[in-house]
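Fold sample X.
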Amino acid sequence: LGFRLGTCLDAPILWLSTSLRQYFPLFLFIFHLTMSVKSMLPTCLVLSTVVVVSEGTSCLPDAIAADQRKNLTFGLSDGSQIDLPLGVWYIGWTSGDMMCEMLNIVASEVLGVQTKSIRGGSSSLQAAYALNGCETPLDAVDKGCPSTEPPYTEVHASLELWSYHSYQLLIEQENSWSKAEALGGVGYKGKELLFVLSQNREAALYDAGLALEFYRSYNTSWNSPWNYYLSTTQVPHSLLMPCDQTRVYDPSHSANYLKVTGDAEGVEIASDGTVNGKCTNGTWWVAPGCRDDHSHCIPVVTGGTGWGLDMMMQQAATYNMPVAFATAASWGDYLAVPRANSTLLYWWTPDAAFADLTPMEVTFPLHDPLAYAAGDKRTAMEPSQLEKVVSKDLAAASPLVYEFIQNMNVPEGIINDLVKQAASEQHRTNEELICEWMKGNQNVWRAWVPEKTKCVAGQGLVDLQGAFVSNRSTAVDCEWCAAGRASLEYEDVTGPTFTCEMCPEGQNQESPGQRTCEDCKPGRFSPVKGNAQCAECEAGSATGLPGQIECPLCTPGYIASMPGQLICSPCAAGTVASKEGSTGCAFCDRGSFQNSTGAAACIDCNDIVLGSSSQRGSTDSAECACSENFFMRPSEGCTECLVGLVCPGGNEPPLQQEGFWSDIVNEAERTYSVYKCRNVFECKTGPLGSCAEGRGGTACNNCLDNHYPSDNGECSQCGGANVIPFVGLAVLLPLGVVAFALLLRMDASKQQLSTLTIGMTAGQLMTAIQALGAMQQLRISYPEPLKSIMGIMSIFTLDLDLLQLPCLFSQDSPVTKFALKLLAYPFFLATLFAVYFGMKALRRPLDVDNLFNLNGMILFVMFISLTLAVLLPFQCQWNPNQTLSMATNPGLVCLDSPDHIALLVLAVIGTLVYPLAILSWAIWATLQFRARANSADGVALLRRYRFLFGRYKPDRYYFGVFFLFRNGCVAAIPILLVRMPALQTMAIGIVLLVGFCFQCRLWPWRTLSANLSDLFIGFLLLLLIIGVSPMLDVDKDSAGRLLGGLLTFIVISVLICSIGALGFAVYRRFVPANVFGMFLCHHKAGAGALARQMKMSLKGKMSSPVFLDSDQLEDLDLIFDTVRSRTSNLVILLSPEVLTRMWCAGEIVTAHRNKIPIVPVVLDGYHAPDEDRIQAIPKSWTEEQISTLLSFDITTDMVEDAYRYVVSLPTIVMKRQEDLDQKEIMISDIVTACKLSKMAGFGNSKKSSVGNAKRVPEVVISGAVMDVEALAACEICQQLLQQELQVEAEVVRTATRGAEVTSARVFLVLLSKGLLEDLAFAKLLLTMLDPAEGDPPEIVTVSADTNFQFPAGDFYTKLEREGLNAPELGPEEGPRLSAAYRSLLSILALPFSPLGSEGLIEKQISEVCRRASKLLQTKSSRKSMRGSNSFKTSTNSASILQTSAEKEDGSQPAPPFVEVAATELNEEELVVAEDF
């Protein structure tokens, strides 16, 4: 676009040069503006090239269509090819670009080559770099030339390159390679010299006959040529470049000028000898011909930095020419000055810049090459050769294009005419001008176009479709012969050429452009014509001859394993090839052999030895023998190896496999009976019947006589020291029993929790060790050091091998060992009795309960070992000989060996005596726990079961049974699943996981440390069973089937359970269940404590829970809904006030109207209301209470109806003054009336026959026992204390019973309203604190009634003076009563709310128990300190009198809860008390 617009600007420039010449300044301004715009348009082309691929409109009428033109194919050094269009580099000036346009048209439209026009160049050097493969030839600094010769170039031709050879030499010096090739000149020469414009020349010729085109016409000695030119003063100074920036100041140029001309005045010589030209006004260098008169100087303006100055300065000085030389400041100035001034012109041809001015060259003497070589340039410059340059690979890629360029020879006249036309018709493009010329001068350029069917060697004729043809009749072009063809010479009337003929069968040609075909090499063949490559003979065929059209197949016994083989190879001995054309020899199968080469079949070993086999690929008949896993039997031949035997192959007897023992039944017939051994150490690999050292018998079961089991399954010889372990145990066991018995003499109530934690953790550790012993029964080969550790711990699992018993009894007898295991506990029990009677004889008797507890603890801790020991005879496993033998004594065949029969009898007895009896005993005791915990004598009996209940929290008392059951499962699983070893680890893992989950959920142990210890031990056991599972020795196939079925069952069960749970949830959504079996409707003040006592008694003894509103404080708004939808029975505790309570009325109405069964329970003081009373009750309520009921849709009429219904119902009478056993019977009757299921035995309590009168409880509880609610509160405390402390507590109501229990350790008093006026309590208090009865108990006071008020001072004064005005409590007992009450009420009372929620009661009772526990432990130490405590009971009458005297003096007693002795409460208890 830039070139086209620039050309369009040339027409107005010419008009301006002629029309505005007389207005020089205006002309000059307009000309400069126009030329600047024109010069800026192609600026982008200087920075980068513009590529145009030939397409669109064609020039010639018979042009080849654009879609039929082809790219050139260039071969690369690696054998590959690349297709590219012909890249034509446009040189950047008119004449050169016209030549490139001519090449472009001929190549694309005549020769059918796709072309690519690359524009943007402006010099021959750039074209040279581009033709040599440099990527950025326009860059002034980096041309982008590769470091090595490029494989191809994208520029393939450029025309009219000036000074090409010097440029090419420079490029080769820089890169040491060349990719370009010069094809000679374009036909015309390039000239650089002075030109005279036509107007000046014609004026001088017409005026004076002066020929200004001849150099001598400028000699000032003869002529005045300046008359026809403007002077230098008329050329604007601003258009010229300063001399110091031009070649005038080039020292080498100036020195050469001085040397040639001797004109010293034209130069300046500096002090350092540097020679520079001398300029006038800084811009003009003046020749000697006008140096004296500058007005006679003819201006000559050149371009660049002084093009041609060295030549023109020498010529002007030599030929006395009146000229002055200057250099234009820019290209525009260079073009403008000659047009605006009558000047001489430095120019070159062919060129269009000044062609419109028709300049004529100034003739100088003929060129002297020798003088020019010496720097003398006074003669004319030699015309330059303008080169045609192509890339070196163009000849191979397109011989026609190459030949056309080579043939191009454009006469000078033609190019000059074209250039002049371009200058005069600047509105037309070069392409248009060349196209026009080519259409009118076809005779000229077609002579340069080579014949298209004149193919060169390596090519062949092709038709319009590009197919190779054999003659010129349909040929239109030449193409390089493809692979598989050869270029053959062909001649007809037109002349010689070449055709591409297909290679015949048996020959090929891999490379394109070749003249001959080659025979296929040996091992290859070509079955058809025109193959580029001969195919390799396929595997299984071969040929050793060249030029073959097929490869024959190998005969049987011979092979060709690889493609392209020359011969078939014979199969080696031991291998055969049964088919023709085999590619490999097959080894003879097992049971066959072949001893010759080239064989087609193997020989069967059965033909040599019956049933024998051989190794694969055997080469000799001697190799026929029984194969691996088979052994030779004379009568049967080769027989499959039995399980437990090792058959390495051959005809020798088999060996014994590790872990198995074989009995030789018939050596001649090789009949064997194989047993599975106890482990792999006792039965070694080797000859049949081999045992570890010192072992013998069936399955190496026993040690030899006078040998005992040692390491690695071996037995060692007995010595004198080997009886020491047994004797040591017999001595140490009684000592240990004595030590434990003495330790257990300590009162359990005095033991700290840390001591209890040690015992619990030790028991857990023993259980874990026994669980590890049970895991030893699994089929697992434990790695070291785990194996050694578990072996050491086996002593705790009754492994008597550690006692080296065979050294004591001389023989290793399984029956003896088992009998001793069963007698281990009787031996311990006998030792325990011996210790008991021995201590009794020493008058230091042991407590029977402690001994009983010790016995139970041993049975509990050793449960796994005992269970495992008695079950071992039932652990029978299959032997390979299809018999069953004991896993622990594999030499005893189950139900066949006499020893095993004896063991079974002992095992049945042991099972009944140990695991079943122990578990049944524990279950029975657990079921009795609730009933016994709530009775005084029951607690005494439960002390004997501390081993079962003492380790757990009271509400987790049942965990001992679960613990035993879990341990029993761990012991039984290896026995019961002995024939399914794959399930053993899973089953034990499930049991441990269930136990782990229950332990986490229940958190049963009494201390945090014990819970964490059990948690950690359970986790480690789980981790162990998971870790050893991969080591389990099982048959993978059977284990896979078994586990697959089990896992399938588990997956299906998960789905069934999920669906069932979902269905049950949907069912419960529409049919909700009754959550509470019993709803206790009561008046809080009249029967609140009784309701709490009933709920406590029923806890755990019936299947459904009991609703008590004090435990559901957050749900009071929903209380009626609870009765309506979540309750099975409404139990009304009919105290005198219950029917007057508005909330109770609402509950009764709700139950009545929703047909909820109602069970009335009549309490003391209740009288059934008559009709008048029923109608009067609702009227006593306030409007607010009635409105509250109405908000629940309950009216007073409904209340009256419900009350009438209640009165009509049968009732159950509860006498609240009865003892606990009788109350429990009455509560059981209530459960029966509600038709609820209850625990067996509940309600059948009978008074214990264990002599209550003779037993002294640890804790005595009392209060205002004449009040039924206060009595219920005392009994609640009794039950909770017995459960928490597991000590005997008793509610004492009379002074008579108080006199029998004064030796109790703690006296717990519940402070409630009316306590101080209760005569029975006053007598009891005096009795408990009477010094005559012995050391009085420690007192703990509990505030159980918010209505209790501490008395003022006058109460004590009146009490001392009058007493309680009752028999035996008159004035004479006043001082004692006053002192007793002062002592009682001076103690800090702990809070207790029997009417509160269950959680609050548990928290309060825990604090009471902590206080009582400390007093139980420190009672003896408090005796010595009691005299210093002002609030303690006085032990003599003087103290009482002193107290009375203090009162008479008017002093007031210390207010309660203010002063507390330091010995009574520790800091922690004070904080707790303050919180309450």
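Fold sample Y, listed below.
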Amino acid sequence: RRPKLSLVEAALAPAFPGHRPSHAAESGILVSYLTFYILSIIGMMYSMSPKKSSGKGEEELPQKGKYSEIDVEEEEYRRSGLNWLAVSWASTWVARWGHSFNAALTKIKAHNLPQIGPREWQTYESGTRLEALWEVEVAKNGLEGASLVNVLPQLWGTKVMWWFMLVQGMRMFVCQLYTVILIENALNYFHWLQQRVLETGQLPNLVLPMLATIVAFSSLPFLNVLFFSIGSSLANRLDQQLLGGLAYSLFRKAQRLPSASRETQRPGANIAGGTDDANSTISGESAEDEKHDLMTLINYDITMQLPGCFEAVCCCINSLIAFFVLLTMLWVRLKLATLVVLLCAIPTVMFSIARSMKISVTMLEFQERVDKRVTALREVLFGIRVVKCYAWEEAMEERISNLRAQEIESLARFYHGLGVLYGVFMSFPRLLVWSGLWGFSAIYGHQDIVTIFTCMVILGSLRGSCELFASSLSRVVSWGPTIKRVENYLKQAEAPLVIPHRVPDWVELRDDLAPEARAGEAKKEASIVVRGTFSWRPDGPPTMHGLDVSIAQGELVAILGEVGAGKSTFLHAVLGELHPVVLGSAEGAAETTVAAKLRRPRVIAYCPQVPHIAEGTLKDNVVFGQELDAERYSQSIFCASLENDIKVLAGGDMALLGARGVSLSGGQKARVAMARAAYHKSTGPVLIDDPFGAVDAPTAKFLLENLLQGEMMAGRTRVVVMQPDADRLRKFDRVLILDKGRIMEQGAPKEVMTTQAYKKLLSKQTTTFEGGDVSPKAPKSPLKTKKEEDSATALHANATREDEHEGRPSWLMLKQYIRLGRWRNLLNFLVIFSLQVFIYLVCDMVLVAWTNTMALNPYASDTPFLLGYLFWLGIATLTWLIAWHFGTWFTLRISANIHDLAVHRILRAPIDKFFDKHPVGRIMNRLHADVGMIDLSLFLRFFGSFATIVQTIIPMLYVHTIMPWFLTVAALPLYYLIGSVVSRAWNTLVPLMYCIFSSKSYVAARVGDIASSNVVVRAFGDSDRLSLEFSHAFNDANTAYLIATRVLKRWLVNRVSFLWSFYTTTTFLVGILNVQYIGAGTLGLCMTNLLVLTVLLEPNIENSTGALFEFIALARIHEYTSVPQERPMRLPEDTRYRSFTAKVPRIALKALTLAPGGEGVLLNGQSFLEASQDRSALVPAVSGAGAGGALAGLAQRCPSEARARRQLADAEGWHRIVAVGDAVGSAADMARELCRSGDEDEVLMDVRTGWLSDGARVEIRDLRAGYADLPRDVLKGINLTFEKRMKVAIAGTTGCGKSSLLLVLLRVLEPRSGKVLLDGMDTQDLGVATLRSAIGLVPQDPVLFSGTLRHNLDPFDHFTDTAIKQALGLVHLTELVQSWPLGLAHTIADEGGNLSFGQRQLVCLARMVLRRPALLLLDEATSAIDPSTQELVQNTLDEAFVGSTVLAVAHRLETVLKFDYAVVLNQGEVAEEGTVSELKIKKGGWLRGMLDAKGTW
């Protein structure tokens, strides 16, 4: 039948049917159209040529922090609207960076990028506005009722939001409604033209139809590009303000949070002790209000989840509107059959929404599990030195892997739910087509061809609207939990005093005196006043009781007390970090009636016991953001005795210190913090927590005389926490003694030192020395620095920290990870998915066959075609589900393996060659943000890219097989041009992505600096400076992200759309010029596919570029799988030197009986185990032949315990059992424990090797060692020998190599030459884990991990609870642990924040008491412990380590006077050695000089 023409179609029909003009006009139109495109393409390619890369140079770009009122896009728009639409300004970047895939030629740094957005959109300005709006919201609705949803519209501006929604709606109209109208009119005209040719035998005049075709088909990409450009520009504005504003607000909030130690304080003897509500409520917060990790919030929630959030809201609204409009259009064509479509569509959409909601819940669970892993990983990386020294790599790796396994479990549920959702979406449009055509056929009979293909386009658009609504709704739903997490962080309780944001009534701030007036006004007025009772929490128990302290201007005050007495807490009270206990409250009922009052200057120099060292150079950490005053800086370095350290540091004062000063010793970190306090010009009082604990006696004397009493602190109030030392105290103006949070004594040093409270702190055995004054060898004048030296040292410093590598994804890398995911999974997915796409094409071909049949026979039956269509649709859906499962298995295996492989390699990397060169922020960024991208996006992006390729190639192959051959030939140059444009864009995107990642590393470094040091930042009043630095760092990352994901994508979409429109238009022109050779159904299917590809250009490009980003993330993770490694953890020949703990099933011991006498064990009546000579262990009986004797025989009785069976089987004859369960040190007790029948499933057996069984003989021969690739040796030709069970003191000035010597013994630092022998065994011939397990270390900086106390003491579960409690008793922590309701299950806060520094040191000592190693290394292990407790600890060392060789680094020399031997190091060499009794009286000797220096105090 002949279709009825619309008005538009009638206008396109020829006026004179019988007239056929010449081809000249039509040829002219084609030539003109072709010429226009060729010229456009030439201009496009010329703009991308390297010759055009000389645009705005780096010197013209704005300096960091200096932003213009207009950005590069606004400048281009003002010059030319057409250039703005073409994104011409980005062509310069593509010309500059897109010409090569070579990493060396295309590196992009943040300062190379232009400004995106005006000044008001930048991070600092957006964050400041958001903070102000949040404060208004909190004031209006209260903290609980405040919501970011109310704040964000005010940040963006409702006008911009409405414009964005309108533009999105117009674009959706173009993509969906205009496409329907276009295909309907085009096919109507083609059908009319076919009928006309059949009637007349010739083509009519096609000039007007050709012009109309060019205009109509070119308008679709033009309008799409126009609205996409406007929408992308507005989306840039929204995202830039949202991401920057939230990140800045969170960073500012982190600076206002209370210190970590406020968690879990308890009343009583140990102020730093905690209760078991450690991780529960603070300030009334419920357990549901879980505090989230700041790094996770910024790296994941903000930068990965929130971009495009308002766009998702607009898509939800606009897709609903489009849905109803399309439904109306469908009703016009299908009438009542539309109801059939609705009956199919509504349940499917509802199911999709429900599934999306379930997926969002799974994602929330996944995010929470990510938080836990990231927290654990950060702790391990910050404590990596201790992890390695204890050989705990495997335990920490297992802990992180278990947390990762929980993530993978959630990820698997996410992918399974997503697979079902995707399967519905992919089958949904064709199901709608089938239901609509079946309904129309059942109700009205046959349809015409135009109606069929028009309905196909409408139903496809309807499917697109439903998909867009469901996917956008799922994003909005997932956006909700993310916003809630950010809200919860912003709603956390803050510190009591946050200047200038909150100053409570009980706080009086005073402006400190100018430096020149301090000395004259000293002691005339109170600089600090603290009165009242204070608690860490507003409703918590008191921690400081009845304080009434007034410190005069310029006064030098010492704070003394036992471990846990509240010394550090007192400093927090002075800083305003504690809450006053309200008089009359339940907590304050038993307290004094003194009203709380705090008077202090606005800015205080605070040096905590764990010094704050930020990522940067030594000079940066001293100057701390202030203007550089070279003379003052040199004086500060001199007074802090850092001059000699700077000389030996690689890079001098320009040496990069790393996060938390990982490259410095404990003493160096403390002195850098003290130099900062001296240099800081605007601070008045100075609070220093234990400045002498980490330095030797001469250096301590130098610090006291030149720093605390020197010119730089003259007239400043100084409050110093320290250990009791009579000679030092005499130089103080006043002394305070604390006990259990109360001031027991205060007054002049002479008075206080006569009190019982002071005597209680002293060791019962005191030793005095007399002799000359020995000062540290430091220059007498401040350091003079020359520019040449500065540049040289700065250059040398770069050698200590590597730039972030920018590799490229390679085929070898991809092959490795394909192997991890399994080749068969990937190949099955690719093949089955390709088959599914082909089956979908078969469905479409069924429609083509139906329509062509209808054209020949209008009365042909519809049923075979409809049933065939439904059959192939079902097959396609089934193949999709199979393909998705193979793909899911593939990506889950990669996610699980790549993380565990990277962590495994990182934990086994050497300290000096990896961790000292890679900032922790960079490592965390890769193992958090990059791993997150691989988890959630790698497979989806890869699948999307592959789907794009397959769904493009297969339909295009079909098009080329049915269209004339010359169209295929003409399309080849077009494909080449599109490929060239895409290649240039990808080459630019790769270095941009690396720029994003490296910028995020700087952001992570800033976050890491503030996470645990916000108290220091508040004290120095540096919040604004650090916030500004953070805003610049985040702005760099945000700019790179927006350019990569918005601007360059827009540049690419606009150009590909322009090129593709030429092909689409040409195809239809060829169709109407060859109307007599092409069927209407054939052309209809071709044009439908081409127009669908036109509409899908943006999402397809986003998928393909997104896949490139994921491969870059994979390459960054891959880099950490090939980092340098330490020597093997264990070697095959280690077995005879390896001790172990075996968990033997109790049932395997049933055949054992007690031997006569009770000191042996029989097996089947034969001697099995017997007592050692000293009756302290069980050894294999002499009759037990074989390598392992009885132990190897016992292995055969453990068939179900593979690990225990393997360990026991490898045991040799000299292995012995030293503990069985709770039985330790007695062969008889162990024998009874082995032979008794018990209810427990397993029995713990501690099996020790005969190597080092009676102590370790240490022999060091010609030892030379240094760090990484630096040429300087820190140890130079050391030759030492220590006999078994000898106690050796290692002394020397700070930086002389004492700690380095211990690290060499542990092989944390590998020798460059020479040997270290333990009982004649070269330590180089052992695996590092075997060696470190035989040696114990108590470090200077105690490291604890979040988790239970038991896990911190025994992460391998090698000891019983009884043994652990005994160890705690020996280090005098029993009272503290008994005060916790959960005992050993008590939760230790992050980094041990709920214990005092001294208590943390004792916990670390308890670890060694448990292990009782043959060689014990003490690195100033009791620096924070008072002399009284130190004496008890000394007794513990004598009692618990009788059979051990002990090497102790000691600055408090009185702690090692009872040792057998002493070694003094100087500049990496042995200055002297001998017995302590000889060296302490040797005239002119080094040790004597150090003792004399202390004795003269």
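Sample Y note: The first helix runs from residue 7 to 12.
Also: The CA atoms of residues 510 and 601 lie 5 Å apart.
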